[in-house]
Write a structure and sequence with these properties.
Layout: H1 4-27, H2 34-39, H3 45-54, H4 61-73, H5 87-122, H6 127-141, H7 144-158, H8 174-208, H9 211-218, H10 223-251, H11 255-260, H12 266-275, H13 279-307
Helix pairs in contact: 1-13, 5-6, 5-8, 5-10, 5-13, 6-8, 7-8, 8-10, 9-10, 10-13, 12-13
Length: 313
């Protein structure tokens, strides 16, 4: 672990640099002129030129990138052109909302998908296996927005148990906060649970047929010990990667689900920014999202080593 971690950390710097360059260059491909957008309806050439100078838009692209990168390194992601608010402040406001939603969704996915995959593999060909596969097929084929609407109709309109939309901070009212996010979290977690179940089942079936599992059984170990201690530990490795990537996807913004439940999260932030051509917000949000993905991959690599001692060499 001591040799592995510094090597992986050293790879983050060039990766983040390359990602920042790609994000900056792709931003230039968006239609429209940022200075014209910021000038509003006046379209005064003098105002537009002042904006170009203020935001260094009159400079060559490499110079513009250096100005932007220097701001990013100092924690300045720019300012929203539409609402004149720092991008970093907007991200700090919206990210905790999506983080809570993503964490709850991932909790549902792990609690459902991992056990279902293990049971399906251990009980291969049985009713349990068929039921788990039917659940996976249902989870993969059910649109999130439709499931969200159905849950709102049942638990909010008919039963009146949960709020239909909106978000309450856990620091204001923890119970109300959980009530407002449990349905969208289940909608998101349901789809991920189906994917995790399929991968967990496949990995477990492969592990159960390995030589070390047959050796463990030959030693007379209990089947539960063989499954949980020997097979599961090795089968978790590919699932860790999938879980990290899915969690990153949730943090990047579950746009449809947030729209259905009127949750002011990361997804709504970036959609509004794209439609309003708020270039600084788009750039900042994409950079933060890419950084989160890279860090989650690092955590997944560390989890590999902790789960499978053979990778510590």
């Amino acid at each position: 672990m001591l040799k592995f971690l510094p090597r992986r950390l050293a790879q983050l710097v060039p990766t983040l640099f390359l990602v920042s360059v790609i994000i900056f260059l792709l931003q230039q491909l968006l239609p429209g002129d940022p200075a014209t957008v910021m000038a509003g309806e006046e379209n005064d050439p003098v105002v537009i030129e002042q904006i170009r100078q203020q935001y260094h838009l009159d400079q060559p692209l490499p110079v513009q990138y250096l100005y932007w990168a220097r701001g990013v390194l100092s924690g300045d992601l720019g300012e929203s052109m539409r609402i004149k608010k720092p991008v970093a402040e907007l991200i700090v406001e919206k990210l905790p909302v999506t983080l809570q939603l993503a964490t709850m969704a991932m909790g549902f996915a792990l609690l459902i998908g991992i056990p279902a995959g293990i049971i399906s593999a251990v009980k291969k060909g049985s009713g349990w296996d068929i039921g788990a596969n039917v659940f996976a097929l249902w989870g993969l084929s059910t649109p999130n927005f439709w499931l969200g609407i159905m849950l709102i109709f049942l638990f909010s309109v008919k039963l009146g148990w949960l709020p239909a939309s909106g978000f309450v901070s856990p620091f204001e009212d923890l119970g109300q906060s959980l009530a407002s996010t449990v349905m969208p979290a289940f909608v998101l977690g349901n789809a991920i649970a189906a994917v995790l179940m399929r991968h967990m089942r496949s990995a477990m079936l492969q592990a159960m047929s390995a030589d070390y599992v047959r050796t463990a059984r030959a030693k007379g170990l209990l089947e539960n010990v063989v499954v949980m201690k020997h097979a599961l530990r090795n089968a978790l490795t590919p699932v860790i990667t999938l879980g990290a990537l899915e969690f990153g996807t949730l943090l990047s913004g579950a746009v449809l689900t947030e729209q259905v439940f009127s949750i002011p999260g990361f997804g709504k932030l970036i959609v509004d920014a794209v439609f309003n051509r708020d270039y600084q917000v788009v750039q900042g949000v994409v950079l933060v999202t890419a950084t989160v993905y890279i860090l989650l991959n690092l955590l997944a690599d560390i989890a590999y080593v902790l789960v499978n001692p053979r990778l510590r060499g």
